[in-house]
Structures are given as C-alpha cells and as structure tokens.
Amino acid sequence: MGIRLQVHPETPQRRFIDRAATTLGAHGVVVVPTDSSYAFAAAPGSRAALERIARIKEMNAEKHLFSLVVPDLSEIARFADVDNAAYRVLRRFLPGPYTFVLPASSEVPRILLTKRKTIGLRVPEHPVAIELARAAGRAMLASTVKMPGEEYALADPDEIERRTGKLIDLFLDCGWGGIEPSTVVDLAEGEPRVIREGAGDPAPFMA
User: Fold this and answer.
1) Which residue, 12, 96, 122, 156, shows the most beta carbons closer than 10 Å to its own?
2) Structural domains in the chain?
C-alpha cells in the first residue's frame, strides 16, 4: 500500500517534498496535485515507472499520454525548441492549467518522444507540483489520475487511495482536487491548435 501524506496545499512541508522526490528518483510512482487535477508522477527517464502508470490506466505506454511538468518558464527551453511566437503564448498562459506541445529538444528522454518528436510541457499553478518538480531535478513526468473507461479524473482523496493505493508508492494528499485534465494546445507547427479541452479556457486558441 502506498504511503499517504497530508500536505499543505500552499506551503508544502519540505520533508514531504523531499520524500516524494526521493521516491521518484528510485523509479517510484507518486500521486501529486496540480491546478487541474491529481496526476500520477514519475521521473522523466524511468521506463519502469512510465510502464507502471500505463498499466494502472490500462493504456499503451507508446501512446505517450504524458507531459513534462517543470517549475518555471525558464526550464521549458531546456526541453523544447521555443520560437518567439510560442514564447509569447507560454508567457501569457503559464503557470496555468495548460499543456503546450512543442518540438522536443535533445534533453527529452527518448521514451517520451512522439513520432513527431514533440513533447507536452506544463507549468502548473500549484505549489506542491512546482516544488516537487524542482526537487526532482527540475522536471517530472505526469499523467492525469483518470481510471480506465471513466470520463473524469479522480478528485476525492479517499477514493484515490482506495483505487490506486496498492499500485503507487506515495500519495501527496492536498484535499479534493479537480476533475478535468489540463487543456492541451499544440504549438509545434505555428498556429495554436487545441488538441484537448480541459481545465484551461480553450477560447483564446480557437479561431
């Protein structure tokens, strides 16, 4: 059974963040809150953790339904090629409940690359997610805590523990979460294109 820790949502306890970062570094899976919903988190280069999350969600790991969470805008340039137009969009909407798809840099682990050589990047507006990403080497892999065949993400901490507790290593509990994943916007080919509507308002990216 995974360990459940009650974490302050605005000033997360340092010892809990460090414990979660250590878990990620040991190829573990952590459930962490974001500004859209709870997410499964793993170290970016951990194939074992990625495959565990894929099994929990009963999805094909090769579909790459994962994003990289980074603590601030400066880290996005580490993992993606960002032109001036894309940077203006990122600066306007991040931190926030959006995932932006961009051309991947050589820093992105190969197991996360799509056939298009792109990567989804997030800077969530949630102190716990930001601090964990920073402590885990300034990036972590994330995927919404949404179970097979269900429309919405799990939001009730007790239900998250009941349904995932035996499958994960650590749960950073910040109370009730959101039910929608982030809104995904593709910036890889110039004009923004909404791939998935979610917690972020998609209207600014729709013609």
Assistant:
1) 122
2) 3-205 (3.90.870.10)
